[in-house]
Design goal:
- The protein is of the alpha+beta class and 84 residues long.
- It has one domain (11-78).
- It contains two helices and four strands, in the order E-E-E-E-H-H.
- It has a four-stranded mixed β-sheet, with no helix packed on it.
- A hairpin with a 5-residue loop joins strand 3 (35-37) and strand 4 (43-49).
- The longest helix has 11 residues, at 68-78.
- It is elongated and about 75 Å long.
- The protein starts with 10 loop residues before the first strand and ends in a 6-residue tail after the last helix.
Amino acid sequence: MKKNTHSEDYRLVVFEDSSCNYSFLTRSTVKTDKTIKWEDGKEYPHFKIEISDKSHPYYTGQRTLVDTAGRIEKFNRKYKKKDS
């Protein structure tokens, strides 16, 4: 690794995805005051995230389908031309 590329606070951090109860350990410079005991028994800085590869729809394949037919019908009802 190149010298002076990362700040001095480049260390192992546990990231926790709060939406699916998934945690992973990686290196980061993120600032946090919280710590957590990891699987190896050591204590690491802890940072909560809202979404990760385990909960993101693109990676999990759980994309929602858009009901375009329903939207078109709703639009037509709302802006329907009235007969004169």
